[in-house]
Predict the 3D structure of the following.
Amino acid sequence: MATAFLSSLTRGIGRYALVAALTAVFALFATLAPGFLSGANLLSVLVNNFALLAIVAVAMTFAVSAGGIDLSVGTAIDFASFAFVSLVLAGQPVALAALGGLAGGALVGVFNAVLIAGIGISPFLATLGTLFVGRSVQQLLTNGGNPVYLPPAGVPEAFRFLGHGTVAGIPVPLLLAALVIAGAWLVLSQTRFGRVVLATGIQASVVRYSGIRLSRVTAANYVLVSTIAAVVGLILTSTVTVYIPSSGNAFLLNAIGATFIGTTFDPRGRPNVPGTVLGVLLLGVVANGLLLSGLNFYWQQVGTGLLIFSVLAIGFANRKAAARA
Amino acid sequence: MADTTNGGAIVRLENIVKRFGGAAALSGASLSVKRDSVHGLVGQNGAGKSTLIKLLAGLHRADEGTVEIDGEAYDRLTPHLVEELGIHFIHQDRLLVPTFTVGEALFLGRELRIPGTPFLDRTGMRRKSAEILARYFGLSLPQSALIADLSAAEKQIVQITRALIANPRVLVFDEPTAALVRREADLLFQLIHRLSAEGITILYISHYLGEIVDICDTVTVLRNGRDVATLPVAETSATEIGALMVNRALGELYPKPDVIPGEVLLQVENLALAERFDAVSFALRKGEVLGLTGLVGSGAKEVVRTLFGLDLPTGGAVSVNGETVFSADPAEATEKRLALVPEDRRRDGVALDLSVTENTTLASLDRFSRGLIDHGSERRQTEDLVKRLQIKTDGIDALVRTLSGGNQQKVAIAKWLSRQSEIYLLDEPTVGVDIAAKVEIYRLIGELAERGAGILVLSSDIEELLGITDRILVFFRGRVTRQFTSSETSPDQVLADVTGAHETLRHAG
Ligand SMILES: Nc1ncnc2c1ncn2[C@@H]1O[C@H](COP(=O)(O)OP(=O)(O)OP(=O)(O)O)[C@@H](O)[C@H]1O
Ligand SMILES: [Mg+2]
């Protein structure tokens, strides 16, 4: 299984180019940015710039694989976070509250599923609607957008585990990200469900004509996307011990960016988990490197934009060359 | 001047080599089309016919060889330049954009403008297309109709009209009759005679050798990417052309085993779909091959769609193995072991950007997954079917997009063989398939029947139906108007019912 993962990680010239780009950016910052190569910084890149975005981007990869998109991943993060905090405040055990959080996120997916698979609204419009509705609902729930704090004294130790804990020296967020990545890769590339999702994204009518219940698969897929995103809501809340309305949307654009970087570099142009993960790493390394180079926040954004442009340009050039051969 | 140096050839392709990846689609093919002739181009699926045509169209570039038009060599043809030179194409797999209107599709890229202004001359365009449609097809199509709502034949007419608007000197047809019912095909032949008489040179690709012999002056046979013969049609025959294509004698064209039909698999009673068909009843037995035929709109195609759960019937009942089928749901049909090989294979039959393997196992993934997909057994099954159906592909990981038209059809069939279906609904299964492969598909149908499957073949090729089925139901205006025992009738008899000759007589008398 591990070898299958490695082989699909490195298949084709395109994927090498992505690894090469990552190495180049890495080398650049290693020379330019003081402290970039230190163990502490690299760990911080993984925990702060990689783990959470990787989980959201992997969720996005499912939506894009099915030929859609989910603009409401942030809403799922927020709902999970709100449910988690509220249940803990209500005195529920942390484990139960966490499950409640996941369910809160999944609820957003159910809403999307009804709109997309049930009514037939296009994923872009449906999830955009969910994004807006979700924002209003959160404002209603919080008296116009006030954060919900956990009183510092009353935070159970277990609550902080997801964000601050370690297992065998490995930070829990990183561990969860690894689990999600491995699980998602397995589901998307090694199961019947993943194959059908992919086929739906490529040519939905053939899936229907093959006797597969298209709307069921689509519905399940959007619930899955939101449930994966909900994991980030839990980690985030556990880290900062506060729920801030509509804060989950911060991940949206980078998640889409990473997914499309991975797609562009795939030799067959298919969305894929390893590609997405490399895309997230690339974005994370660049963000951290630019920060350490002393550039201000706005220039960091410009840097990220330039990165996405150049990566996509290289990817397209690659694919064109492959098509001409 | 140029005419004398190249023997009157308007188009000349010399020793063309074209490779895709490692495999050569063309390995030294030559083709020379004389001015004012009707030139046939034939060959098995994957022989390289479409590739050769696409080279001429400027859609592919040759790795070696020369392309001459009017005696002048071009090494960088573009689709635009080729059209300027007066060469137009009805491509096999170029689809019209379904969301366009007829008017947009006809004039896309060469819109007429009101002289001296940048504004579109809508009236002029409407007049011009209406004139061509009426002159050549005796037909009017509303300019605002959506392409998606047209029948296959009408789409074809739009494509031809689009070419005619540009006053072509050469028209190239890549399997034009594949989408047409026989009667419509006859109209196309008349059209070709007429265009030829008007001085347009025709290059014609088809798998119906009868057609080639009927309408062409000269025929070129391609085999494995090379031209193996160019003959005047007057000096050859369909049989000889067929033998040249496959490089052996063809043998029995319609292999059909004797199977005694067993118990009823599929029972259809008084099935109706509003305004499409009514009171359709028949039974399909184990081991039986039942043919359905009829004109476009006769209801035959709609019955097949309804049986597979694609449309909800407005009346009647269907049962499979004695169990009533309740819903309009292809998934339920599939669970009851029905299989549909749809007519529009590139839209509904195969996913072009999935691999041969992924397509083959798409309907039967349950067989290959216990939690995780067992890639090994999935590949073995695919390799097995590729061998059995003689699918010509670069490998089982090749995208189906890279297969030739006929081989794509075989993949669409392989999908259901992998599913081990029991009742096969085959909608025009041999359209676009070369004769050798046709015989293969017929043999396969026979094999399935021997194993106890029931097969429903919808076809407008009546000879084919007579050759491979036990019984034939003829549809006319939404009803089954006649039933034939295949061994006891003739093509003319069936055809008379298909076109409703008897119906009109009955009404007149
Ligand atoms: N874009 C492509 N990439 C890779 N291989 C291709 C591509 N186009 C065609 N081929 C291969 O080239 C060969 C010739 O294909 P072509 O479409 O010319 O056949 P054809 O004679 O038109 O067959 P058919 O009668 O089935 O339409 C086939 O083996 C096909 O798989
Ligand atoms: Mg072809």
